[in-house]
Design goal:
- This is Glycosyltransferase involved in cell wall biosynthesis.
- InterPro entries: Glyco_trans_1, Glyco_trans_4-like_N.
- Residues 169-321 form the Glycosyl transferase family domain.
- The structure is a single chain.
- With 346 residues, this protein is an alpha/beta fold.
- The protein folds into 2 domains: 11-158 and 329-345, 3-Layer(aba) Sandwich (Rossmann fold); 171-327, Glycogen Phosphorylase B (Rossmann fold), CATH 3.40.50.2000.
- The protein has 12 helices and 13 strands.
- The strands form 2 sheets. The chain has a 7-stranded parallel sheet with strand order 3-2-1-4-5-6-7, sandwiched between helices.
- α1 (23-37) crosses α12 (330-345), α3 (69-77) crosses α4 and α9 (258-265) packs across α11.
- The longest helix has 18 residues, at 310-327.
- The two termini are 20 Å apart.
């Protein structure tokens, strides 16, 4: 893999080792076409094939599947003349580091999670020694930048604009993986403690994961099974938002929260934990409904406030939408990301 600096359009490769289409892959699928619009040649490696192709459809972005470290390295060998290899998550970082030994491409790592790389001390030490391979690092929030223990440039994630929904359906929507760190159990306990279901509201949970059966048992034990719907994995979460009345985001250490940004874009009122990236997104909105992490009663109280008055929800949602359009656009994200790339190439 060689550089294209002297042979036409500059070329960036976005690399993940993934067969999923979750937050990181959606991030890539939104950013890559906008970079292509800026005149860059863009290749995306990794991510669930059909959702990624659908999301990239209509753009000039090339897609290659790669589920594992090995397949990512093989895909990189099929790519020529890359100026920038932008890696996402640790396995992709490792694949990029290995490829950089035989390449003059500049390696840029986007940090999506608020933690150092690697779960064990030896892995963290190995990444620390290899850090010099990265020409630059990008953090998706100030929260992430302050948690990784390494220098980085903060570039907030952006989302595409959307029309405001009617906010008339009595649905509280959640969208996240059903894993322990996501605090879905806090959300269900808060739902049980709130009065929303007495007013005819339902809690809809989009997502799947290892905690699903336990969470279903929790809903039954708390007596709210009839008002909680588990929707399973959803390829297009944004399509659910126009019908919802409130969006609930309980995760305490969210790097930024792409689904929260998409809710803001749809003018959907958000109730969220007052921590992590939420403080930079919905927390920047006047009158934001934020509760302390793991505070079940606090979350329940804010849910009750949110569902109580349709006009208040409408005004709050429009303030959130205005904040998204001013500060969290894909256009601004693409411009800032390309500025990081240009700094590596200069």
């Amino acid at each position: 893999m060689t550089s294209s600096t002297d042979s036409g359009a500059k070329h960036v490769v976005h690399l993940t080792c993934s067969a999923a289409f979750a937050g990181v892959e959606r991030y890539v699928s939104l950013l890559a076409p906008r970079q292509a619009d800026r005149g860059w040649r863009v290749t995306v490696i990794g991510g669930a094939t059909e959702p990624m192709k659908q999301s990239l459809g209509g753009s000039d972005v090339r897609f290659l599947p790669a589920e594992t470290l090995r397949s990512a390295r093989a895909a990189l060998r099929l790519v020529s003349r890359a100026d920038i290899v932008n890696t996402h998550m640790s396995n992709a970082d490792l694949a990029g580091i290995m490829a950089s030994v035989r390449s003059d491409s500049h390696l840029v790592s986007t940090r999506h999670f608020a933690a150092p790389r690697g779960r064990s001390r030896p892995i963290r030490a190995a990444f620390s020694m290899a850090r010099r391979r990265f020409a630059a690092q990008i953090s998706i929030s100030h929260f992430v930048a302050g948690s990784i223990g390494e220098p980085s440039s903060v570039v907030h994630t952006g989302v595409t604009d959307a029309a405001a929904g009617a906010c008339g359906r009595r649905i509280v929507l959640m969208a996240q993986r059903l894993e322990p760190e996501k605090a879905t159990d806090v959300a269900i306990a808060s739902w049980a403690a709130s009065r929303a279901r007495d007013e005819g509201w339902e809690l809809h949970i989009a997502g799947d994961g290892s905690e699903r059966e336990r969470l279903q048992r929790q809903a039954a034990a708390l007596g709210v099974r009839d008002s909680v719907r588990f929707l399973g994995h959803q390829e297009n979460v944004r399509a659910l938002m126009p019908d919802a009345g409130v969006f609930l985001a309980p995760t305490a250490r969210e790097g930024l929260g792409l689904s929260v940004l998409e809710a803001m874009a749809c003018a959907l009122p958000v109730v969220a934990s007052a921590s992590g990236g939420h403080a930079e997104t919905i927390g920047s909105v006047e009158g934001a409904l934020l509760f302390q992490p793991d505070d079940v009663r606090g979350a329940a109280r804010l849910l009750d406030i949110a569902v109580a008055n349709a006009e208040s929800r409408r005004r709050y949602g429009l303030r959130a939408q205005r904040a998204q359009r001013e500060r969290f656009t894909v256009r601004a994200q693409a411009d800032a990301t390309l500025a990081v790339y240009e700094g590596c190439l200069s």
